[in-house]
């Protein structure tokens, strides 16, 4: 697991060079726009809700003594909770809506890595979008199921250090999952993809760790997060598929026969 996490992180090395070599930057315009707009909308929503959520948390303190201190703590906890939930929503929105744009990018990288001029691809933009929505709604629900209990436990002093790390790793896993699926959709159906990612969770986490870390870089992070993470995940996913003899490829020559 640990070894694969580092492989997922290391895959980001050379992503700029590969994108420049294959001329991929032109494909990232719409996904970058989706990323920026989604970040702005969710950021504004989080800003507006954080104070109200903090006030809601403060109501669980019934005593007069320490109420002001607890209110300040509640405001911080409320803001952190809204940020965590906002990151979850943002991540799945951009991964789902960018599917029709990221899948072709992943295909071009795969063709470059394997030396194949034609990949097995029988899906339309609409079907890629639907699969992206389906995968990310499923992942969103699972992520919330794991994250919400941890957020509740994070109100306990000391425990919140552990829960914060776990929440970050969970978010990283599902971010990596979404990035890997841009490649997997050409080779597996829905259920096979979830099984493949689960069996290679370390790669997904490693990819997602950098993905999540980049979101904390103002402006530049949300612009570069998709181009870099999709490029890195494709190189690793193709490697895994090749090692496990799971590649589903064809060429025009073989198809004509």
TrEMBL record:
The chain crosses the membrane at residues 27-49, 69-90, 141-174, 203-226. Keywords: Amino-acid biosynthesis, Cell inner membrane, Cell membrane, Membrane, Sulfate transport, Transmembrane, Transmembrane helix, Transport. Pfam families: EI24. GO terms for biological process: cysteine biosynthetic process; sulfate assimilation. Its main location: membrane. It is a multi-pass membrane protein. This is Uncharacterized protein involved in cysteine biosynthesis.
């Amino acid at each position: 697991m640990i070894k694969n996490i580092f492989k997922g992180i290391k895959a980001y090395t050379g992503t700029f060079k590969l994108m420049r070599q294959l001329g991929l930057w032109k494909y990232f315009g719409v996904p970058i726009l989706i990323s920026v707009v989604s970040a702005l909308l969710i950021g504004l929503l989080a800003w507006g809700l954080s104070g109200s959520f903090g006030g809601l948390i403060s109501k669980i303190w019934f005593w007069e003594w320490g109420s002001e201190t607890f209110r300040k703590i509640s405001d911080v906890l409320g803001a952190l909770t809204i940020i965590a939930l906002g990151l979850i929503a943002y991540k799945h929105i951009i991964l789902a809506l960018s599917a029709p744009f990221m899948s072709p990018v992943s295909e071009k990288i795969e063709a470059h890595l394997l030396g194949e001029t034609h990949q097995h691809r029988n899906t339309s933009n609409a079907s890629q979008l639907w699969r992206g929505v389906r995968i990310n709604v499923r992942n969103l629900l699972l992520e919330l199921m794991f994250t919400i209990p941890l957020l509740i436990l994070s109100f306990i002093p000391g425990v919140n250090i552990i829960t914060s790390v776990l929440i970050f790793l969970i978010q990283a896993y599902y971010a990596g999952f979404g990035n890997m699926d841009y490649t997997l959709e050409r080779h597996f159906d829905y259920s096979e993809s979830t099984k493949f990612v689960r069996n290679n969770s370390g790669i997904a986490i490693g990819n997602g760790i950098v993905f999540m870390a980049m979101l904390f870089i103002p402006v530049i992070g949300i612009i570069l997060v998709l181009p870099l993470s999709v490029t890195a995940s494709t190189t690793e996913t193709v490697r895994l598929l090749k090692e496990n003899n799971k590649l589903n490829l064809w060429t025009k020559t073989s198809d004509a026969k």
